[in-house]
Amino acid sequence: MSASVTNPGVRGRSVRPESASVSLYGLNTPIEASDQSPWWVLHTKPRQEKALAQALAAAGVRVFLPAVRERKAYGHRRRVVHRPLFPSYLFMAGSRDEAWFAEGTRRVARVIEPPDGPALASELESIRLALAAGADLDPYPYLKAGRRVRVRTGPFKGVEGVVDVRSRVDRLIITVNALGRSVALEVDAGVLEPAD
After folding, report:
1. Element (H or E) spanning 125, and its range?
2. To the nearest 5 percent, what fractions of the chain are helix, strand and coil?
3. Are 151 and 188 in contact (CB under 8 A)?
4. Is 161 exposed, middle or buried (0-12, 13-18, 19+ CB in 10 A)?
5. How far, in Å, CA of 61 to CA of 102, rounded?
6. 106 partner at 20 to 30 Å CA-CA among 119, 160, 173, 186?
7. Which domains, and CATH codes, for the chain?
8. Are 112 and 41 in contact (CB under 8 A)?
9. Coil/strand/helix, residue 193
10. Beta 89-93 vs 77-84: how paired, if at all?
């Protein structure tokens, strides 16, 4: 393994340069379901995930903020930034009082108690293990048959339709109603976003 380097985008944090994905908080500790410290989902105000994670970690609350490493160009400068894997969401383990403490920071839009805590813990552990192994995770829109979507980039930008069938792992068939008829269009799922 190569040595760690300090990332200028996150003060005082070290990352492995070959890793495409990192987690700013919670990467090294396994995520387990617990009755004493259940996992909560915190829906944050826009762009408040990192600040909330820092505040909660400083207060001794266990948090998990999965993030991906991304290169951004600002004019002639290039920087590495850490973008949350799930924008506006942070995960925390703690009591109901700690969840309300998080809400009191004024960085939380709402506190969500998951209906199935052990399932959430299992899903978060899968993400943690993938990040720890250096997997290149890419946010993928949650699309299912019948959901209205819009193409956000490429030659079909702006085209709206309804997800029809998932034909292959990396492709979707979108039905677009035009002139009272439907046509099918094969589009890469990575360029789609929910329209509603």
Report:
1. helix 117-132
2. 20, 40, 40
3. no
4. buried
5. 9
6. 119
7. 5-132 (3.30.70), 148-194 (2.30.30.30)
8. yes
9. strand
10. unpaired
Cα–Cα nearest to 28, from 13, 11, 43: 13
Of the candidates 5, 8, 6, 4, the residue with the CA atom closest to the CA atom of residue 79: 8
Spell out the per-residue pLDDT of the chain, length 196, in tens.
333 333 334 444 433 333 344 445 777 788 888 877 899 999 999 999 999 999 999 999 999 999 888 888 888 899 988 889 888 999 999 999 999 999 999 999 999 999 888 989 989 988 888 888 887 776 666 667 777 888 888 888 888 877 776 555 445 555 545 444 555 567 777 777 878 7
In which order are the strands placed within the sheet that holds 192-194? 181-188, 171-178, 160-168, 148-151, 192-194
C-alpha R_g of the chain: 19
Nearest to 80 by CA among 3, 5, 169, 164: 5
Q: What is the C-alpha to C-alpha distance for residues 85 and 189, in angstroms, rounded to an integer?
A: 17
Q: Report CA 16 to chain centroid distance, whole Å.
A: 20
Token pair 């589009």 is at which residue? 187
Residues in the chain: 196
